[in-house]
């Protein structure tokens, strides 16, 4: 999906988003108000340079545009699998990006993520999954790990994983399964500008993903485990 087409649908009141080295940045109008836009395109893998570039854009927004909403447009094949980046500690750079997004949240910036094309593994974790709420388009491709790779890592036959994926969204890719698990809040099929405006108005920094996963039947234990741990913690403190 071309990012320019998506940007036109999301921001009919105008934007100045530009692409540089597969990184998107700029500002836009949503319901007459200014928002900052950060993202990636062309399925680019997130390496050291791109993680730093995105982190810089987030920090610049915090410095120059206090409390502006931030919209993250997501299209990435995940973490860059390159020896140089691994030796430089790509995990730390991606963690830095995640911390910058969390800093923006703590400084009062509503943050919305939109998977408009592809979202895989670490590139998704440190972008869309760090937002207050993440959404996806119907044709988006979302997964943490493909079933062939999962089979190699877990030593479980791919045929078995394919069968499990039919009934358990944890094993299955696609926006519908991430919706069931609470990983994304909704799938936007039309009226993108209206949906974005509503999402920004509804955004808060309460993490409801495990709660939504329980309500939707995609994650049946996460919220119960959280409640048990919190209850034990309160009991211990008393």
TrEMBL record:
Q: Which Gene3D superfamilies does the annotation name? A: 2-enoyl-CoA Hydratase, Chain A, domain 1
List, alphabetically, the Pfam families matched.
Answer: MdcE (PF06833)
Give the first-level EC class, as a single word. lyase
Keywords assigned: Lyase
Listed under GO biological process in this entry are: carbohydrate metabolic process
One MF term in the entry's GO annotations: lyase activity
Q: What is its EC number?
A: 4.1.1.88
Name assigned to this protein:
Biotin-independent malonate decarboxylase subunit gamma
Q: Which gene encodes it?
A: mdcE
